[in-house]
Amino acid sequence: MGEKAHWNSEEETAFIEFLLSQKSRMSDGGWRDAVMQEAADHLTKLGLLTKGPKKTKKMCEGKWKAVSEF
Known about the structure:
mainly alpha; two-stranded antiparallel ribbon
């Protein structure tokens, strides 16, 4: 098991905004793998990380699951 993701508010906001910008790419079953990988890459490029490892596709999938349950 890898390091645990730590999300600051800027990363969370950037992540949600990215997904909203890709809304047309959502499938019936949820976000495609490519979108989550692109979200992770996008967060890395923004340089908002303040703690923990850079975000991965799996971390983004977990975050989406957590925030979409509300």
